[in-house]
Amino acid sequence: MVTGAGEYKISWVVDGEKDNVATILENGVSRNSVVPVDLGNNEIEVTLKDDIPYGHKVAIKPIKEGETVFKYGLSIGRAIKDVEVGEHVHLHNIEPLRGRGDLRVKE
Amino acid sequence: MSEFWGFVRPDGSVGARNYLLVLSATIYANSVVERVSSSLLGSVPITHHLGRTQTKSDLKMTFDILTRTAANPNVGAVLIVDHFREDLCNLEDMAHALSSSGKPVEGVNIRESGGVANAVAEATRKGAALIRDLSCQRREISPISNLLFGLNCGTSDTTSGLSSNPALGICSDKIIEQGGRSILAEFPELMGAEEWLASKAVNQEVGDKIYRRIKDFEDRIYATGEDIRGSQPTGDNIAGGISTIEEKSLGGAKKSGSATIMDVLELGEAPPKDPGLYMMYTPGHGSESISAIAAGGAQALVFSTGGGHVIAHPVMPTIKITGNENSYKAMSDTVDLDLSGTLKGKLTLEQAGMMIYDEVLAVLSGKLTKCEILKEATGFAIHRVGISI
């Protein structure tokens, strides 16, 4: 269940233990701002290294290239570059593992 | 138990609307259908570009979607327009398929009528007589257990999986608790969520079917040799923050709430009468998916959207909800409920779920959705697999 649904928050984490990304749900959240992230049992602060558009994700733990990206406590893909805490997480640094007809062709 | 005011059909199903459906059997009847329907108050046109020169299995799919849409409880009577002579998608075969519904079915064949002008006149007169009879029918009180409820999402973004989808799941659970049924579809948008869904299956057999049918869709995607990013997730999903199909699927699967999954249906198939949640094999294409759900007999559908949407099925009221405040501001013409309060500390998910539930009950009893008022009806499309021949 989404942590703290019904509260006002800028960042949203689903599984406070496993997720390594948070979703930013506020307009104009920019580089260098310090964003509180509620993990359920505790709260951490993340300093943003990028502007994060509304609805986009930010890394709340470091993710090495090839490691799984976790949201909802489950895999949403893997990192294709090393990702630092506070960086924007999207198509440029993660890839899906499903529906990859392009990978099948190479096999 | 909750109740709504609906139109009782000869086969016992209960409709939220009492339309005359003016239906093209085939592409070449489309203009006649549009002209006739624009002359008749209380009628809804359905046109399409299929019904001939299709592979046999596609033609059967077209036939099934058309006849089952006509059998939907929201349709009180059917007026079919035919061109010359089609195999399967013709007046006689379609009327025969509709005979068990017990509802009045009339038809006009353009060539037999003596051309389009005559066909328009003949169909308009037949349609007018049908509507006059329909206008005598009154709504009756009906338990919510008669509801077959559609779940769908489109132009999703990351608010969908956090707000509007889980709230919709709560609404769906409440309908099922009272003996109703819900349908979850869009299989390519469940790739990555199989394990979570299968864990809610009523038995092992259904759990295996969930894995198998989602894999079948993924195999169709592999056969293209393409990386489907841009199609799944779509350009607007990506703009809204969804990065991968798995992320989209895990958010999308939240629409299913906590109910037990009773079975996996084929495209357009009617579920059994047992209350519960059913999955239906459809593509992620919004209109194809909601059209398959309407063909299965759903009287209303809630469509959860992140970016905002206009989609509305011509015969099945399509209630739109969003958790994204920016999208509601941009698209409130066609989005019925603003659930962004759930992300602002103003609304719990349970409260949002009840907002949706109350809206569904009102719409079933006659409240018009924004799209019905604006005559937005882009939500009809027939799925196909094969080529035109």
Structure description:
The complex is a heterodimer of chains A (107) and B (389). Chain A has one helix at 101-106; strands at residues 11-12, 21-24, 34-38, 43-47, 57-59, 68-71, 74-79, 88-89, 94-95. In chain A, strand 6 and strand 7 (74-79) form a beta hairpin. The N and C termini of chain A lie far apart (38 Å). Chain A is mainly β. Helix content of chain A is 6%, strand content 31%. In chain A, strands 1-2-5-8 form a 4-stranded antiparallel β-sheet, with no helix packed on it. In chain A, strands 6-7-9 form a 3-stranded antiparallel β-sheet, with no helix packed on it. Chain A has a two-stranded antiparallel ribbon with strand order 3-4. Chain A has a single domain (11-106), classed as Archaeosine Trna-guanine Transglycosylase, Chain: A, domain 4, CATH 2.30.130.110. Chain B is α/β, with parallel strands linked by helices. Chain B has 2 domains: 19-134, Rossmann fold (3-Layer(aba) Sandwich); 143-374. In chain B, 39% of the residues lie in helices and 18% in strands. Chain B contains 14 helices and 14 strands. Chain B has a 7-stranded parallel β-sheet with strand order 10-11-9-8-12-13-14, with helices on both faces. In chain B, helix 2 crosses helix 3 (91-98) and helix 6 (158-177) runs parallel beside helix 10 (245-252). The longest helix of chain B is centred in the middle third of the chain and has 20 residues, at 158-177. The chains are: A mainly beta (107), B alpha/beta (389). Chain A binds chain B through residues 1-2, 5-9, 12, 14, 23, 25, 27, 53-57, 71-72, 74-77, 89-91, 94-105, and chain B through 157-159, 161-163, 166, 188, 191-192, 195-196, 218, 221-229, 232, 238, 240-241, 243-247, 249-251, 306, 324, 326, 342-349, 351.
